[in-house]
Design a protein that fits this description.
Distance between the termini of chain B: 62 Å
Strand content of chain A: 5-15%
Number of domains of chain A: 2
CATH topology of the largest domain in chain A: D-Maltodextrin-Binding Protein, domain 2
Strand content of chain B: under 5%
Number of strands of chain B: 0
Shape of chain A: globular
CATH class of chain B: Mainly Alpha
Number of strands of chain A: 8
Order of helices and strands of chain B: HHHHHHHHHHHHHHHH
Radius of gyration of chain B: 29 Å
CATH superfamily of the largest domain in chain A: Periplasmic binding protein-like II
CATH superfamily of chain B: MetI-like
Helix content of chain B: over 70%
Number of domains of chain B: 1
Largest sheet of chain A: 5 strands, mixed
Structural class of chain A: alpha/beta
Helix content of chain A: 40-55%
CATH topology of chain B: MetI-like fold
CATH class of the largest domain in chain A: Alpha Beta
Number of helices of chain A: 20
Structural class of chain B: mainly alpha
Number of helices of chain B: 16
Shape of chain B: flat
Strand order of the largest sheet of chain A: 2-1-3-8-4
Largest sheet of chain B: none
Order of helices and strands of chain A: HHEHEHEHHHEEHHHHHEHHEEHHHHHH
Distance between the termini of chain A: 47 Å
CATH architecture of chain B: Orthogonal Bundle
Oligomer: heterodimer
Chain lengths: 453, 322
Amino acid sequence: MDRLTRRQSLLLGAGALGMTTLSGRGALAATMEAGVPVADVKPPSFALEKGATLKVLRPAKFIDPDEAWFRANTKKFIEQTGVQVELDFISWEQLRPQTAVTANTGAGPDIIVGWSADPQIYASKLVDLTDVGEYLGAKYGGWFDLATLYGTKWGSGGKQWIAIPLGGGTGPAVYRISWVKEAGYDAIPNDLNELLTLVQKLKKIGHPAGWALGHAVGDANGYADWLMWSHGAYAIDEHGKVAIDSQEMINALNYCKELYPNLISGTTSWNDASNNQAFAAGEISLTFNGVSIYYVLKNAKDKRLNEIAADTNNVLPPYGLSKGHPPMSALVINAMLFQHSKFPNAAKDYIRFMMEAPQYGPWLSDCYGYWSNPLKAYSEMAFWNGDPKIAAYKEGMNTPYYDGYKGPISANSSALAANYILVDMFAKVATGNASAKDAAAFAARQAERYYKA
Amino acid sequence: MDAATAEAAVVTWRLARRPDSWITRLFDYKPFLIGLCLAPAIGLLVVFLTYPLGLGFWLALTNSTIGQRGHFVGLANFISVLSDPVFQLSVFNTIFYTAAATVGKFGLGLWLALLLNHHLPFKSFLRAIVLLPWIVPTVLSAIVWWWMYSPQFSIISYILVNVLHLRSTYINFLGSAWPARWSLVVANTWRGIPFVAIITLAGLQTIPPSLYEAALLDGASSWQRFRFITVPLLLPILSVALTLSTLFTFSDFQLVYAITDGGPFNTTQIMATLAYQVAIPGSELGQGAAIAVAMIPFLVALTAINYFGLARRKWQQGPANE
């Protein structure tokens, strides 16, 4: 690190001191550990290999505390166990190819914190982590659905852990409180017709909503997923067959078409940064996003941005026809231990250590909703309610929805998102470039290119 | 000195010379020397050109994904890709993008070169400035264009709406098919003009002024001087510039990737961005490689057209062959 900010040095120092003499928000986190309900479960004892050294690779940070706490916790592990850990951060786009190379060559990092579907793709190259997964689940109130889906081997009934999910990045609804009120609503309605009325009214008062429909890999896919799942539609059925061409999907497409003219202009050209910029500039009143919009506005040095933050709220996205859970998913990061590791016990212990409350708690709380917790007990941490505006993010992994829902999790499910098959389907219908029926049939054919047997 | 002594002297002299060592003989052996001198160049070509290109071809013939090595599937990827409407659209987009941008670049680039060829004040300074779009890293200029084309924050829209009051709404540059395609063509043209301008300017400076003087004396108009002196003498260098420029444009990636990433709904998806999207984020290495390999016939055809069409007369055979 070339230059440490005051905050970073504080955090790093805190980690080095074993968090005994913390100040600021770090101290808050330390006392809040008690707020994590912990069951009395004996940790599995891993006989650490003599002279063990580990290489760990994870995705790069977008907010400082993410990296600072991860480093500090790793340092603490080194001090307590004597196991040397080399921690590397890599850009998001490079992580997947790097994981593939590691898996295929049997050389490289011992642990990779990789993307959602990767544990399933490389299952045969991974060390079984069932002992760690079961222990953590028992101690911390159980795992959320999305964690079990990605962390356990597909078809094992959620029993065989092949990776430990560390967290998920989710995108609930972000809105301006005063403008929604001006449009006559106290909250974002869960009913789809009501939502349409709200969006029409927001447009009328000059503060339209905006959802990306361009090639924005995170935001546009998130919006397309919400449109689909909130109408009871899904892309893939339980047997792995493409199920895009359905009546529910046509309903979703028609709904998208009704919403579109009421949105801010140009959303078909939006990328992942566009809604953040438009929201911060006061151009839009409602969108779906990770905590980054709120986080940046709140922590900005500009008073005007802080005022926007005070008028911003984050809530679960409208349920529509989805029962029990909001129609959203998360981008999950999973710790995978590769079979080529010479020190599997040390590696398992490292993963366990990083997930324990004294380490995981401060990391989670300082990331402030940027990562959603996979273990239920961490939802009880006080910071989630200390700022009720971020409470929606603790639900990020409490969802049965995932990329390629309801089919098996595989490489194909990521291909759907990467090739914008659903996004383009919605964009075409929204802009009147195809009928709902034609667009659904076209998207189904495109999806079948990847879901061929 | 009689003959015998002379012969003895020669013999002595021959004996005095040390016999060549094997290493000297080896280095005197022409085929070896040629091979040795060429080795670094061939090595570089093999490692950095032949191997990646060969690997690309091979991947296109396999069902490799990012997770798995895959096995040989023959032409299955090509058959699959050719029947994909998104690929077909990307071929159309690439051809349109290349053709429109090349016309723009050459029209404006040549015009700029002709202007710069005159005696202008601050000539060298102006010539340096002209190169700027070419010097700036492509990704940086792409981000600048992305801002200029933003539906919310475009400076172009701002000037038209808020300053000049010529429009009431911001322009949706990239939100629908044709405006998005033309916007990318403009960005690419802007970036490519300096290349054409500087190369043709160099060509213009090699035309002897005496030819223009002679034409002036003969009473040729400025159009006639351009048509009968400038154009024919510029043609050889123009064709080199044309070949390189069309190849660069056809295989462009960065501008499109950073400005639209192929959106909206693939209407600006070009072959290079599609190959990347399918191969890397989409994990289908074999299919992506097939798309990339499918660009090669187009590139070869473009080169051949320029080579045999425009360039045949001059730079291939030299002026002596006229």
